[in-house]
Design brief:
Blueprint lengths: L2 H21 L3 H12 L5 H7 L9 H38 L16 H15 L3 E2 L5 E2 L1 H4 L18 E3 L31 E3 L4 H10 L4 E10 L11 E11 L4 H15 L7 E8 L2 E11 L2 E11 L1 H6 L8 E8 H9 L12 H4 L3
Parallel strand pairs: 1-5
Antiparallel strand pairs: 2-4, 3-4, 5-6, 6-10, 7-8, 8-9, 9-10
Helix pairs in contact: 1-2, 1-4, 2-4, 5-10
Length: 361
Amino acid sequence: MALAEFLDDLERLRGEAVQRFETAADPDALEQARIEYLGAKSGRLKTAQKGLGRVDKADKPTAGKQFNATKQAIEAAYETAVGRLERDGRDGQATAATDPTLPGIRPVLGHLHPITQTIEEMKDIMGRLGFTVAEGPEVEDPWHNFEALNIPLDHPARDPLDNFYLATAQQSFSGRACPARSSGQEAATDITADPRTMLLRSQTSTVQIRVMEQTPPPVRIISLGRVYRPDTADATHYPMFHQIEGLLVDRHVTMADLKSVLRLFASAFFEQRDVHIRFRPSFFPFTEPSVEVDMTWKDGWVEMGGAGMVDPNVLRAVGYDPDEVTGFAFGLGVERICMNRHQFDDIRALFQNDVRVLRQF
């Protein structure tokens, strides 16, 4: 076959195929045209490809190049037709479903829950103060939830009435001898001391232990998340709530640093220039000294949470030398701060998913 004849056949094939694809009125017509021109076995393009074998050897490079160009043009025309029919279908559906005589209605858009908004703003503020966000599991073991935080086996904070313990198949809460975790301690008769026991974490302080176990000082982190305590739900208590935990460990950290960080945080979050922070003496097993933190709010004082200097026993538990480094930690209730800001008087309103409440945010 002469080269000119082969090229004429290709040009004629291209023109016919493009016209069929452009004039296809529906998907069925387009599919028939695709099979006729692009069919893998008997399509006209496949037949034209066989004609390459009859072209003189010297002309085959030119013939092959033109065949590839023709194939690309036909395939592009087919893809264009597919897009055209899809758009026509969507436009037709929109036209059928839209009544232009109806008044306009603003669509109802979702938004973040007020607790989530509070958490995200806290992350942003503390990030500007140099704290990075750390996360940890909500199901914890007694070591991270109690012992590493200087809460001994006989401490009342470990009572099953104050925690959500998850017993294994071999355990029960009736009481039986369990080996103590640390050497030198007597065997316990309570599931709370069994190292196999897991529980829902009662504080986000567990995260600071996990971070310090893996990170040499200095450490500057915050952790935010859910914590669980079997409290009866009322206006100020809920069995699940959120905490923000802050930790800074370095050389020469003092209570003055703690007070400055909390004041800067409160000033930024509540958008008050002149915020006063006061400490009231308290006790927490994992800080010494320990304080309750209050801040000025309108005409009075509002309790924010607990704080203090990290107890040396906690530093030793994670391998730090308390003679070389010191640190402070604080824990604030996210719901309490959210309620103060938005004037909620019942924490349950944050968890009832009442759209009349949530739409305000």
